[in-house]
Write a structure and sequence with these properties.
two-stranded antiparallel ribbon, eight-stranded mixed sheet, binds coenzyme A
Length: about 210
């Protein structure tokens, strides 16, 4: 199966409103996040390096500034990607989650990393559930996908816990040192979302 990563040319979407669920909310990245982003990546470098190509070299304040400058968006603006920060009152910055229009028309892909100091406590699962819900609030979006390298077992746990279905795998050049070069693709269809484990997780967190 060939990757259709670039087949979304021209697909722009209006930034979805983010909501919270229980102990977590997701908000758009903002200018004041530069020091928090830099600090979180620096603390997480060894954890990110196997999987995130941009973590291969030492992360600098300038890299954080560039990302934030490119991503700082206003509500209502049309974009091809949007970066959200999972957070709560205690922790203003728990990681970075993206919605990307790069997997074809009518589909958004979710990408993520979590600050190593807050892993294994459900941040990625709940934040990805919130982003899935947000993606389906965009008119015309009927599929949400999560892609990861086959060797990245931690990443696989997220779509699995949310009830995404595996739709296939494709070969691609490894981009980061932990990758074996087989990309596994998971999909949630709009029609399946309301009864999914992810939607149930959100409902339970909001009870
Ligand atoms: C992948 C990542 C985002 C998961 O974040 P997280 O907040 O720890 O994930 P969660 O706590 O929601 O865990 C969800 C499930 O994923 C799986 N999982 C998470 N971390 C795991 C690990 N280190 N080893 C094996 N499985 C793991 C488990 O099934 C887990 O459910 P469980 O805790 O009930 O067993 C985080 O490990 C990370 O930032 N990794 C580096 C960057 C990266 O690989 N990003 C994805 C690129 S495709």
């Amino acid at each position: 199966m060939m990757s259709d990563r670039d087949s979304s040319e021209g697909f722009q979407f209006a930034l979805p409103e983010m909501q919270s669920a229980g102990w977590l909310r997701c908000r758009l990245i903002e200018e004041s996040d530069v020091p928090r982003l830099f600090e979180a990546v620096t603390a997480s470098q060894a954890h990110l390096r196997p999987w995130m190509p941009w973590a291969a070299t030492d992360y600098t304040q300038e890299m954080a500034e560039e990302l934030v400058a490119a991503q700082t968006r206003r509500g209502g603006e049309l974009v091809t990607e949007a970066i959200y920060i999972p957070c709560n009152d205690e922790h203003p910055f728990l990681g970075c989650f993206g919605l990307h229009a790069r997997v074809g028309k009518g589909a958004l892909e979710i990408g993520y990393w979590v600050d190593v100091r807050y892993t294994r406590r459900g941040v990625a699962t709940l934040a990805a559930a919130l982003l899935t819900e947000a993606a389906f609030s965009v008119p015309g979006v009927d599929r949400v996908e999560i892609h990861h390298d086959e060797a990245n077992h931690a990443s696989a746990g997220v779509p699995q816990r949310l009830g995404y279905a595996i739709i296939g795998s494709c070969q691609r050049e490894p981009e980061a040192p932990g990758e074996v070069g087989v990309e596994r693709q998971w999909r949630m269809r709009g029609q399946d979302w309301p009864s999914s484990a992810g939607a149930q997780l959100l409902a339970k967190a909001r009870d």
